[in-house]
């Protein structure tokens, strides 16, 4: 939460095609936060959706937990861990680490700075973070 507050308050660095920092953009920071939140939702969803279904199936269709109720918690934790092993890298891959944003969507001071330097860049990039 602190990083998000700092990012939206000050903005995050936006860079041109040469990697030179053009400025700090609050619009890019908001875009980065949206992307990170969405990827975290995508990361958590399979574990929250599949685990109850699988546990219910194991409970009703097998005798795995019959007389061994204590086994349900470790099986559930292991199942969530297994699902997260695959969901985490997939969710992180939904959005590129370095995202781009249209210059038109950036603050006017950044657009003015690009015009002053004679840049014809249509997009700038930023590191969205994790």
Walk me through what this model shows.
The structure is a single chain. 58% of the residues lie in helices and 15% in strands. It is α+β, with helices and mostly antiparallel strands and 130 residues long. A two-stranded antiparallel sheet has the order 1-2. Strands 3-4 form a two-stranded antiparallel sheet. A hairpin with a 5-residue loop joins strand 1 and strand 2. The longest helix is centred in the middle third of the chain and has 36 residues, at 26-61. It is rod-shaped and about 75 Å long. The model has no long low-confidence stretch (mean pLDDT 90).
What's the topology here?
Elements (H helix, E strand, L loop, with lengths): L1 H9 L1 E4 L5 E5 H36 L10 H21 L5 E5 L5 H9 L6 E5 L3
Antiparallel strand pairs: 1-2, 3-4
Helix pairs in contact: 1-2, 2-3
Estimate the mean pLDDT confidence: 90
Shape: rod-shaped
Termini separation comes to: 12 Å
Q: Find the count of extended strands (DSSP E, 2+ residues).
A: 4
Structural class: alpha+beta
Strand arrangement, major sheet: 1-2
- Percent of residues in β-strands: 5-15%
What is the C-alpha radius of gyration, as a whole number of Å?
A: 22 Å
Low-confidence stretches: none
- The helicity comes to 55-70%
Largest sheet: 2 strands, antiparallel
- Number of alpha- plus pi-helical segments: 4
- What is the N-to-C succession of helices and strands? HEEHHEHE
